[in-house]
């Protein structure tokens, strides 16, 4: 399909004098996992909620699965109820933290949401998939923070969406739960779901995203693969090793193989404590954000 799943042009949103989103252009392809990164208050949630149809934009063009989300949500213009309903069925949403539904149990909430979708997934299978099988009879207000977040994810995917928005999906997850969540996202992508997520975890973006976009002060300052962001792939490598005296040496080089070959000759074999590293995604991200500030 030539048309992207998401197309954004010159998107703008201000709250009074505060310009939250200045002029964003963005395309997300069908089947892509796209991660939005940026510091607190950069404009990620505002952007995502406009794409979801939850917030009104001030200006710009937005098309999500071929429909203007503001129109689909009755915030501007008109469309047929059938088109709007079909659009909402195809879009799964995990907002920043909800997870509480009074006295209802996990099983009841997921079964309840399943009724809104014509082709809903099996509630039991979804609960299992997000790792809440043991909590199916627990009332949602008794869940831990990370468990509530898993319930949010379950509600986002119960309708088997074509496009899934996840706003900071793994906040409060323990490391094991985060890995399980990553596996779930890869699974969804393999099944053809397009995914847009925001995260503050750079390793999460690196593990999941085909491309990342960095938002700073309402502007998209970079869009690239995690591997190439900020020309990370061609950055100098740092070679470090331990000297016979026990101190650490390090040097930066564009030709680290030559440095290592040289060291190997000097040590006649194994170089103690040898590492060769390039800047991490977090390194280049922090540099970018620093530059934008
Ligand atoms: P975080 O990482 O903290 O979630 P974010 O990148 O998602 O941040 P937004 O929530 O989009 O940032 O906020 C962007 C800017 O818009 C901030 O300056 C914020 O204070 C402001 N803002 C967001 N929502 C509202 C609102 N409902 N009313 C007024 N200002 C708002």
Any descriptors?
single chain; alpha/beta; Rossmann fold; 10 helices; binds adenosine-5'-triphosphate
Model description:
- By secondary structure, this protein is an alpha/beta fold.
- Among the domains are: 1-79 and 162-174 and 187-231 and 282-293, Rossmann fold; 236-277.
- The protein contains 10 helices and 12 strands.
- It has helices at residues 44-51, 69-72, 81-90, 106-114, 123-129, 145-157, 175-190, 202-208, 256-266, 281-292; strands spanning 6-15, 18-28, 33-37, 59-64, 91-94, 163-167, 194-198, 211-216, 219-224, 237-242, 248-253, 275-277.
- Strand 1 and strand 2 form a beta hairpin.
- Helix 4 (106-114) packs across helix 5 (123-129).
- The longest helix has 16 residues, at 175-190.
- The radius of gyration is 23 Å and the shape is globular.
- 35% of the residues are buried.
Helix tally equals: 10
Q: And the CATH topology of the domain at 1-79 and 162-174 and 187-231 and 282-293? A: Rossmann fold
Helix content: 25-40%
- Beta content comes to 15-25%
- Termini separation comes to 38 Å
Number of strands: 12
């Amino acid at each position: 399909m030539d048309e992207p799943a998401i197309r954004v042009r010159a998107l703008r949103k201000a709250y009074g004098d505060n310009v939250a989103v200045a002029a964003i252009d963005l395309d997300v392809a069908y089947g892509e996992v796209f991660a939005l990164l940026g510091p607190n208050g950069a404009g990620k949630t505002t952007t995502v909620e406009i794409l979801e149809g939850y917030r009104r934009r001030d200006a710009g063009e937005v098309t999500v699965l071929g429909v203007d989300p503001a129109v689909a949500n009755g915030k501007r213009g008109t469309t047929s109820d059938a088109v709007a309903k079909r659009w909402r069925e195809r879009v799964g949403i995990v907002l920043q933290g909800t997870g509480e539904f009074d006295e209802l149990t996990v099983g009841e909430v997921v079964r309840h949401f399943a009724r809104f979708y014509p082709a809903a997934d099996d509630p039991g299978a979804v609960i299992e998939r997000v790792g809440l099988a043991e909590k199916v009879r627990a009332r949602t207000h008794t869940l831990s923070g990370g468990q509530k977040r898993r319930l949010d994810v379950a509600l986002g995917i119960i309708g088997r969406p074509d496009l899934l928005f996840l706003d900071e999906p793994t906040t409060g997850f323990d490391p094991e739960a985060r890995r399980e969540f990553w596996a779930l996202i890869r699974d969804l992508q393999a099944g053809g779901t397009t995914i847009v997520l925001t995260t503050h975890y750079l390793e999460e973006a690196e593990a999941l995203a085909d491309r990342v976009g960095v938002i700073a002060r309402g502007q998209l300052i970079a869009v690239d693969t995690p591997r190439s962001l900020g020309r990370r792939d061609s950055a100098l490598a740092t070679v470090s090793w331990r000297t016979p005296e026990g101190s650490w040496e390090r040097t930066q080089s564009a030709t680290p193989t030559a440095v290592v070959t040289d060291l190997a000759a000097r040590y006649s074999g194994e170089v103690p404590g040898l590492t060769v590293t390039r800047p991490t995604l977090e390194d280049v991200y922090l540099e970018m954000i620093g530059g934008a500030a």
